[in-house]
Amino acid sequence: MDRAEIVREAFRDQARHCGALGSPFTALLCDVLAERLRSGLRLADRILDWDGNPDSRHDVLPLRLAAGLNALVRAGEMPALASLYPPNPLPTPDRLWAAVDDALQRKGDDLSAWLSHPPQTNEVARSSILMAGLLTIAARWPQPMALFELGASAGLNLNLDRYAHRLGTLETGDPSSSLKLEPRWSGDPPPDADVRIVARQGCDLAPVDLGDPAARERLLTFVWPDQHERLDRIGKALMIATGSVPRVDRASAAEWIETVLPLGALQSGVTRVLLHSIAFQYFGDADRRRIADHLDRVGAVATADAPLAWLRFETAPETKGPELRLKVWPDAAERRLATADAHVRSIVWLPTTPCTAGRWH
Prior knowledge:
The C terminus is likely disordered. This protein is of the alpha/beta class. It has twelve helices and twelve strands. Helix content is 38%, strand content 20%. Strand 8, helix 12 and strand 9 form a beta-alpha-beta unit. The chain folds into two domains: 112 residues, no CATH class; 229 residues, Rossmann fold (3-Layer(aba) Sandwich), CATH 3.40.50.
C-alpha cells in the first residue's frame, strides 16, 4: 500500500474499533474520512502523507482529527457540523461529509494543530479494573500502598480509591463519591480487602494541567461525542480532582521509573505498585524492555515486608485483547486476573492461575 492507503486503512480500522466500543457516530466519521478525504488541501495532504504510523496502536491519527472536529463543534464554531453531531440523529454519509469537508477547508489551521496532540482521554472507567487488581494485592499484603502510574495523563486514575466501585457483588472505594463505577461483571468478585493508599504519583510525556480550563476541555474533547456516560464520568472525576490533584511529572516512562523506584530503596511496611492502563503500547520497544528489566532488578531485593507489584491493564500480545495482569516480587509470580474491553464496560474475572506467557516486551 502507498502512504495514503495506509492512512485510509488506519481510519477504517479506527471505525471498526469505535463501532465495537459503542460509538456509531465516531465510526461513521472515521469511515467517511477514510473513503472521501482527498489530496489538494494542505491539511488533507498532511493527513494522507502522515510522517509516522497512523494506526490505533501508535499515532492514533484518526482520533486526533476527530478530536479537532469535536473541538470546533463544542466551541460553537461550526453550526452546520454541530447540527449533525450527537444528540442529533445519525446523519447520512453524504451530509456528514459535506459538513466535514467545509470544516476542513475553513478551519484547516485549527484542525492541523490538533494533529500534534496525541489522544488523552484518561478513561476513568479503567479505575475499576485497576481497583480490582489493588484488592488482589491488598488481600495478600495487607499494608499501605504507594502508587506509581505510567502514562498518567491528568492522573485521574490515581484517584481510584476516591470513586465508588461495584465489582460484581462487592462494593468498594468511597461509597459517598459522586462517581460510581459499575462495569458489567462475570465470574467471582475480587477479594474483599482494605486498599490504603498513602502516596500516589505518575508521569506522562504531556501531563494535563487540571488547573488550566483549556487542558480540562481538551480531555473532554477527546471523548467520543455520542458516549454520554463517558463524558459524565470524566466530568465527575475532574470535579473530584479539584480537591485532590495527584502529582504527574513530565517525563518519559523508563527514565521516571528508574528515578522514583531506585535500586535498593525499600519501603518497609509499604507495598509499591507500578500501574498503567492502555499506555504500554505507546512506549518504544527499548523503553518497554528497560522498564521490565528495571523492575526485575528492583524486585530482586523486594521482601515480604516491602513487596513490589506490577499491575497493568494492557493489550496482551497473545490475544490482542486488553487483560489485567499482576506480577509481584519477591516471588516474581505473574498472573492473569481479568479481561475487559478497552473502555471497561464489562469485566471477566478469571480464576487465579499463573501466567506462562512470559514478560511483556
